[in-house]
User: Fold Si:dkeyp-74b6.2 from Poecilia latipinna.
Amino acid sequence: MLMGNLVWGPSGVSCQNDTEPIVLEGKCLVVCDSTPSAEPSGNALGMSVRSGTGRVAFSAIRNTNHEPSEMSNRTMTIYFDQILVNVGSHFDPATSIFVAPRKGVYSFSFHVVKVYNRQTIQVSLVLNGWPVISAFAGDQDVTREAATNAGLVLMERGDKAYLKLERGNLMGGWKYSTFSGFLVFPL
Assistant:
């Protein structure tokens, strides 16, 4: 990796550590580590631009209304049947569970729709079996309502995140529900 002090000179920029001079001609300069480690430390960028290891994002939707049997499982995990984006393939479409590929700060958002249902629903973002962010939808005088929330979560490599129906039921449809997340930055 390029290390050293940069000095502005008449011909652009040069390094003081016996490397070749770098000339800036009105362009943006990106410095990449040609041999990135698995877990960067110190002043490293934290990801390899060349290999794209820092790219983690997913977005899944419910494209069809659910049937009561789909939410009759004991876990009450909310399932999504269409993947819009799954960069890095860390969201499992079979289980609707996201597994963190590395330690970092992750952003999650969700929007779970209930239709023609007078019961209050509570939806939680669950991290390793524990609810960390919740949202409620409970107005009995509307035909469509959504439990929506978003937040940042610190995750370790291998941590699992998913949505869980904590209260109520989704019978009646949740066709336009979404669940999305991405790595904000690695640690």
